[in-house]
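Researcher: Sequence of DNA repair protein follows. Predict its structure.
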Amino acid sequence: MSPLVITLLIVGGIFILIAIAYINHMVENSKLEKARFKADLNDRLRRCADLSESMPGQLMTPQLKLLLCRLQLYFSERLLALDKSAASKTRVDDLRQLIAQGDSIAVRNPPQPVLNEAKAKEVRFQLENLHGQITRCTQDGILQANESKQWLSEIRHMLAQLHIEFFNNLGQQALQQSHPGQARLAFERGVQYLRKQADPSRYQAQLRQLENQLARANAMVLETVQPVADENSELTQGLKELEGDDWKKKNIYD
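Model: Prediction complete. Tokens:
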């Protein structure tokens, strides 16, 4: 065998090894990318499902339930293309049936009173999660820009509803516990929040209600302070009379 043939065989062998390594690298990258894509779909599907099930009933509407079902269907169909399991197919069929109900879709989310700061933060986190999902779906072309704009506006309204309920409940609890000062602070914060809204006219009824509650709390605070003021007045008068007696005594002894 000539040196040229040997050289060609060596070069060819090296080329084949490089090609095999490159192909293996491409296959591994493809598997990794597929796994990442599948994990991302599962995560977004889980987030939408959690929002659909755990959103407080006072904020959930049939339209929002439908939106979340539509997003779940989109992610489920993409997962079905990667995973032909019976569970994936059943989930897709169930979601399609729910979406077919339109605005008649059942909303079974129970109301969750927002009675403390921890609950308010929990619901706010849910709204932020919903905002993030809608924004990303718009970037990915899953939702149209005009529909996304409407939903982002609705989320701001839901956030306002959350604050109204939170401040009102805090104030009512403080009144029940005979803490009118704390109640006044809660109602005052609610009034200030609504007055800062971009569309305050939308919340005129709630604003009047909070203003009435604030006036009531103010009156209770004044009633609490008045006896203290009266006592101070009596004490001041007594001291004046005592000072007067001392002056009279001084004149007598002088």
